[in-house]
Write a structure and sequence with these properties.
- This protein is of the alpha/beta class and 298 residues long.
- It folds into two domains: 225 residues, Spore Coat Polysaccharide Biosynthesis Protein SpsA, Chain A; 60 residues, no CATH class.
- It has eleven helices and eleven strands.
- It has a five-stranded mixed β-sheet, sandwiched between helices.
- The relative contact order is 0.14.
């Protein structure tokens, strides 16, 4: 078997260099790394390229995408490269965030072993720790629906097996920070939908994998630290826009246009106080926010 780790890089050269260094702990498996640069600043790209030359590893490829098309776009370009250059049919794709560090190099082998032993499983995610190396990030997500959005805090809490699970557990969706999927399954469902740019693309992917007849599993194997896990503050920025816009998009794609329009109306109404009370000049424009919501719904 061969595992390809796919990392999307956008102006994060030092974190990516640190992540690659930490991957030296991955042993006893044919492990390769594909880094997709999503049109970073030249200085960031040069810094990463220089590091890789010094690393002098034949198992790392740095490729440049034609544009910054978002996270899913970057992963898809990496998978395309793997498919076009593969030397074996037994390939597994390991998607991992750039703001992570491997702390237990055995998890990849364990995850791949599980996938090989359970051919009806289409995607697995390991246990992810926050950067204090103690707290566990809840990487188990509900599939997007009106109910899960409106009652997200309760739903998110109710399905949180990340801290307590001692055995593999079937779930609806795994956070995109770290997961492993067979190449043939990823290609069967056409990979990430590139319409999302960032956020909610993992719900779309897991939903498609489930619809194709496969299941999703959380595996309680300690794997990585995720430095972005504590970033829970919500400003009225592009992240605020994409998180909501992409939930609307998911409903239109997989539920109904009526549900998508209804959610747009809910987001419009509930966001009014946020925009009225905020005085941050770096906020996204109210008009653009509303435009993007309803554009995604129609």
């Amino acid at each position: 078997m061969t595992v390809y780790s796919v990392i999307v890089h956008y102006n994060t050269s030092q974190p990516v260099c640190d992540l690659i260094e930490s991957m030296d702990s991955i042993k006893d498996i044919d492990h390769n790394i594909i880094i997709v640069d999503n049109q970073s600043q030249q200085s960031e790209y040069d810094a990463l390229s220089s590091f890789l030359k010094k690393k002098n590893s034949g198992k790392i490829e740095l490729i440049q995408s034609e544009k910054n098309g978002g996270f899913g776009y970057g992963v898809n370009r990496g998978v395309d490269w793997i498919y076009n250059h593969r030397k074996t049919d037994d390939i597994y794709i390991h998607v991992i965030n750039s703001d992570a560090l491997v702390i237990d190099g055995t998890y990849l082998q364990k995850c791949v072993d599980f996938l090989q032993q359970h051919k009806t499983v289409g995607l697995v995610g390991p246990k992810v720790l926050m950067d204090d190396e103690k707290d566990v990030q809840n990487t188990i997500l509900p599939i997007t629906s009106l109910n899960s959005i409106i009652n997200f805090k309760r739903k998110y809490s109710d399905i949180n097996l990340s801290k307590t699970a001692e055995q593999p557990a079937q779930v609806d969706c795994i956070n995109g920070v770290c997961f492993i999927v067979p190449l043939n399954v990823y290609r069967l469902v056409d990979g990430f939908c590139e319409e999302y740019f960032m956020y909610n693309e993992e719900q779309d992917l897991c939903y498609k994998i489930t619809k194709a007849g496969y299941s999703i599993f959380f595996l309680p194997y300690k794997s990585i630290l995720h430095y972005g896990a504590y970033n829970t503050q919500e400003a009225l920025d592009w992240r605020f826009l994409y998180k909501r816009r992409n939930q609307v998009l998911f409903l239109k794609k997989h539920r109904s246009k009526f549900q998508a329009l209804l959610l747009s109306l809910i987001f419009t109404t509930t966001s009014i106080p946020k925009f009225l009370m905020s005085r941050n000049k770096e906020n996204i424009a109210w008009g653009n926010y509303i435009k993007q919501l309803y554009k995604a719904a129609l």
